[in-house]
């Protein structure tokens, strides 16, 4: 039996860093396996979560001067101040750029939460290399995306087999939160309502209105 | 042959008003026939479009103190200043509330662009009554939503048969814009990129980056 | 322009009767074009609505001793007391059974709300015959079902072309209700929450809890 | 109001003929808008129905020596004895082959039930030409198929607009049957159970077993 | 080879308890990966099953005074009398609330059947913690739900990897039943027909009618 | 009865022109209602068809210097030599650019086959204006595309109501071909196999191999 | 590395038996996770395959006098002569009926190919018990079916984890065939064309026609 | 922890060979689990990739004189010059043909990238045998296809369990590329834009136009 690190390596604000790989304006346009807007909002949610819990983030792009395009402006707007953004000149696997590996290493966190576009390349190689370097890896599938469903199904099983913990955006945030009474509770509610689970914003507004009127 | 009013009654900033019917926090949660977030964004897009082109808007809610909940806060934030919001106490068809009919009448616009949640009730009855009152009606289906696909398919055909012009959010905005060189061009680009067609934001950011680097 | 009878022949408790055609235990098992349970719940919703507004109902079955099976027991349980149930011995079109036509005629209602399984046969022929007899017909698609999507798409267009008003369960009930402050408001809320739109039950329970706690 | 011929031109064994257009082994392989096997079974069902009710059938192929391939062998096996099979040498619209038009004319039936592969070509042109020649046309969509969903959606609306009655396989058969107590009842049950609605075979077998054991 | 506990730890009325985690009126509204009503009915089915077989149940909620809302009233109505309902004040993982862990421990059952909304948080953490505490865990996916398909796919693989037995509502009940001739047979048939597999109610009613008539 | 122009205005090489509206590299990336590659291939198919039958074509772009991007290079490569490409500086409706209207008028063809990206704007307005100018219009839906399914469903019904003939790429080509024995037969087979119906290429290659070996 | 028995325990006519579990007329009607007809045809395909290769088969039913209904008549028609059909009186897991276990044991085959309706119960328990008894198990998913997609997804992973080889109908048959030149080649082609892959019948008929004409 | 060979056996132009199994004109027509054209384009992409990186390829067919048909002509056109094409006379598992095994062995590459039609037979057995022979295997699912979704889901898990690395076309190419600055960068961009990810062609053309204009 394994609980995939949940009991022994639970994600906490102290032991976790976030890697956002190649959420670029050109690449996002190729996401066809699920809702592009969800990928966008979930990547933003991870960035805003980093601010809520004080997590370090490293962002990276692949050849942003070329057709891949710049990092999503709406994601840039959510990154914690000072987040290193490593612009790779050609390395497909982000960890093959020494600047990226150094930035990750400087975070000094054993648990890495990774999302990337496209799933079967940018997320995949970053996750596999991180595992190889001894990190615990949470691959966040719904903040990643790819060009067809089979590429996604394939990636899930390859990542599972390689030892990554497959996770969702809300799953990661909830593991970090641990208790709604903690200081991060209010910020988490905002991340859920605005970005990761918009239905929750509607439920919350309904509740507030009824409570005030009650 | 009919061109459904396009040549003779084309939507312009001068002849068009917008009705937003029951986009409430409780009702939106029942939208299951397509993406709730898209309904939300498209309703916001119509509201922001009103500001771009100076169109009058009337918003309305059904029993917002009850389970239907308040108007979506993110939609309220987009409404033009001074937009009348008519809170109906129980009338299912918005036009059966004299305050709503008066507010619509006060807009003095022959063309009404209508969106509503849920499609087969709130959008339907407002559209049918408006047609009965002699308005030209554009029912905006992708800014509306309902609880199942059959209710939507049914509604499209009932609206078509009743003489409403079936339209999309982007179709309405483009008919109002008419020429990208007009003053509304910049605002339309913003509405498209942020709300009605988020892919367009990515395309635009890619273009800007390449142009600057070029 | 036509508003499909909405302004001139609006459904009211006084001018409307409901026909439930062949919702039998054997036939329901062939519904594959959308959720069987939704068909079931919507047929029940129409029956319970009849009690809320005092509408007459006629139910009918086709050869219930044979493989088509008996009327759905959960639907029988919802029928208003005294509802005639006409067991046809073989007529495919319910109106070809004189007992059925007499029962419908005895309702003395110009507007007929019709649902049936399967859509392209039982709902179709009853709707076409009723139109031929001079009734206004509302064909309720989401309380009906058939064996494949193409049979449904085909049926919608045939019914539209024949002059039936295509409607949804919730659309019919809302047109009958007209105002939530009317006596039928409470019963309608129950029909929506328990049968026609179960999400509404959750929204309502959330609202009640928040109001009480507020 | 129109009831699309149901009351005035109801399909009967005496006034109806069936046209099966280009159900060939090469063309069937391109059907992607719904289940190929359903198209196959429904075309067979129409052929077997012709035998049940004594309807005339004309079948036709387009260049069967070429890649379109021969008529489906399983369909040939169901055709009534003596059915003319018109092998066209190149005419896309079957009615442009005089031999086909003559064979149809020789049936001397005012109502034509037409199915064809592919929908937007073979079914479409045969239906439009038949309408032009003054026939009443029932286009049977679920015994036809095409290469993508948009081609089908487009075809439904073009056929509706042109005045064809859109129908399903089971809808056609049931209109012909009219009463299960008639001589065709037994044969219809067989067509439904084996071909047009296989679920009905299971329901029937369950019923028989329970009745015998009861 | 492993048979996932089936041979050595088969679920029996004596060794099994049920945990229902956060089936609340606010959270259920976010379920978008499959049919909300199915989640609802399956959670009810597990509760009613507990009564059929005399299994202990522990239910829990997360901040039910807030937007998550109260436990689904229709689920409360199905819980065995005396079922402890642990209202957590903020702990995301139910097992971090000592009252919950104590209630579970008091059941004294090595096998835990767990369902929860949302899948990737409430079901996930409860399942992982239960595994960590040494319980055998059956995670019941179709009595759980989440906000998108990727979150579900991710959760299935994470749970599988962690050692949970992935199961369905009907799978759990059938393993408990073991033999339809046992005392629980009648109650199981009711749970299947009314809640877990409504088609079975239609099949059963058809059978009863045919047997009586036979 | 109408046959939508099929008998009286059948598309022929002499009476038909093709308009390709805004198939640009930026806009194509927003197509989400069906397969982008199919839109691409079908637009190419129409262009190559023009060469097969000697039809005139007018292509147009909207602000190709901006984010909409240049005309698809693979489409440019298929255009008949000398095809006018009208680059509009901002007019949403192509017919509002006098150069476009002049180019269309210069074709001197009463029947216009129109495809455009996006469907509810570029195809819609060009089709409506062409109808207003007295052209017969075939709107080719599967060579067009838009951002969501509701925008498409809406557009189909608006175009139908306005009097456009809804058509598919293969439907248009087949109506032009009329007889496979005509000179265009060989070219049509190539267009089908390479672009409009790739399955046909496989069927054709299989047939050729078997014939040669036979 | 494991090759799941392919190299060491490849399915051959000598080492393989087939178990068909509860393909009954009542249960098949609940299959909603994929095409019921495909389940039916694939179960028939396995039975006919047994005759092609001389494999022993054991079929079984659960309470066939009750609502589950008799074994599918079309499957009975395909069973090899003398196939034992074990009618269980209530045991959910077929192996808990000694007569079934004896019949399986009498086959004396180390590899069991198992299909069952419903997947998460009938197929599942038979597969798990067979694994526990030391058999190699191939669970044939596309000859099995269940009531919802989540029940299927869950079952695949539970079976994988338990050590069953997940397989398809065509995969099993092809492993048995091994070489098209072997005596079973002709029979396999028939099984593929008529039952397991009907497209193959069309391809074959096209080929034959072209070869003869070539 | 395993990284599935990524760190220790990364795919490089020196250690990798490609096997293309049975991409034949008859078999491709049976692909129904995802887009046939995507399978086609991805198989072509792998072939063109071989030329970009100088990888050896072995192609094979099963009974190409029969209904399976010849190798796809568009794939033949992409194969590197001199690619051995092994025409098997009947062996289902390509490795059972000594000529195929010899050709693979002659490549002398420890890593085999394999795609095949159909997935559960041609890809499956080649992958399992290659694993048995000691090769590292990357099974490329989106360059393979089969007749139904369950056959695919089943195959993914069987391949995963057997030790194959599940991969996508773009994943394989990117692992080979490793750095866009390497000599293969330009060729890879072409493969992506023309075949494996057509959206990338649009993004690239937009970028080029904007850069030139910038």
From TrEMBL, chains A, B, C, D, E, F, G, H:
Domain Isochorismatase-like span(s) in chain numbering: 17-168
Record Pfam families: Isochorismatase
Name the record gives this protein: Nicotinamidase
